[in-house]
């Protein structure tokens, strides 16, 4: 496999490989008529969650915690999505710039319950520290940014798989692995389940509420909804690649080389670029003897085009093998390195975003808006901006009832997507979607009709963090007796 069609580009100081110039293969200009048929109903449930990544797993747990009957459909054999199967084991930022933990709730439970040896990150006392030495130590280990220590641990993906399974099963969530949701079931303007494919063929699951946590808004797209896909071309957030782990390394030695032998390190990078055209350094994992490579980042590919996905796999493998060879020969600490694992899931950062009743925008974070229907608070991109209030409306697809979206396809602009797609934020939106779906199903309401304050109270009961202004407003308001107040909700979303 030749590398010659790839060109190296530099976006914001980060190198990416361009694939956009290659020509797509022509496809036959023909269609095949598939006959209509009745499909067996596999199950009926209150809440159907499609996609068991960070958002879907958290949604299922949260809905289960309020007593809903929940089914979770996942195409692979594990939970965690990209955070486990994609080897994205760097959980990038649970704390804000002051060191306050803003991503809490189920997200906090994951980190509190993972075995100690499965997590590498700064102690609570250091979160928010601006001490130069402490920040310099954690910067090398992916847990300090802009000179501030953040709670951004790296975790053992296998331990997170196990814990995710355990926490869903504790809530009696019915897990259906090796099942690919193919089509939504849409009746009278509402999603009421999905048709999925498995070794048993095509079957239907009927549900009161569906949560699309496929990462690519697969069900919303198949339902024919309008979606957004614009992305800043100068940003790495649209790049795709398959990550990999190298075992048998000594990362402490590698980091000393990088920090203390600056000239040798620069020469190493020059040699690497010459040998492989494009070159990247590893990140620390949760262990000293395992290195994480989250590139090489490829640009110009679509995450929802099957031929592009195939080509990204081929190119990623080709580059991976080149990296292993080069690092073994030349990188201190990598002499005995071996390719431990190429990620089972392709690393997609962005594909589609739903169009919601509301959305997070750059203008919002510049103004510091706190939404009345806030369902969580994200850390901001830099200390220049306040925390970002995430509205319930960003989970509600505009044109359809019966369905919520959570995870990396929530409604936001391209700038805000760069941080809302991170694992902690996907935990956050998944948590809220699960609570909202559980409340809706339990009260025979559409998700859009559920009072945001009821969702907020339940989120707080489940340990989530909300802006102080929202907590205060809730304290001053009598507790809602019913989950829904459809008129008020529809008015506040401007849809009356
Ligand atoms: C290379 C790379 C580096 C990254 N770096 C970081 C980082 O350092 N820190 C950080 O916090 N975040 C990082 N991210 C972002 C983060 O990993 C993802 O955005 C996040 O995992 C998205 O979570 P999700 O639940 O929305 O979707 P996913 O994690 O994509 O999970 C979706 C799940 O749905 C399943 N699924 C999809 N379609 C179907 C279907 N039709 N039927 C059944 N199942 C389906 C998939 O198999 C998958 O398990 C990175 C991402 C990539 C790709």
Structure description:
With 496 residues, the chain is of the alpha+beta class. 31% of the residues lie in helices and 20% in strands. It is built from 14 helices and 24 strands. The chain has helices spanning 54-65, 106-113, 132-139, 157-170, 218-222, 251-260, 262-276, 306-330, 362-367, 414-420, 423-442, 452-461, 468-475, 486-492; strands spanning 7-11, 14-18, 41-50, 70-73, 119-120, 144-145, 148-149, 154-155, 174-176, 180-187, 190-198, 201-212, 227-228, 240-241, 244-247, 283-284, 290-293, 298-299, 338-342, 347-348, 353-354, 374-378, 388-391, 403-405. The strands form eight sheets. Strands 3, 4, 9, 10, 11, 12 and 24 form a seven-stranded mixed β-sheet that branches. Strand 16 (283-284) and strand 17 form a beta hairpin. The longest helix has 25 residues, at 306-330. The model is unreliable at 486-496 (pLDDT under 50). The site of flavin-adenine dinucleotide (FAD) has 37 residues, from helix 1, strand 10, strand 20 and helix 11.
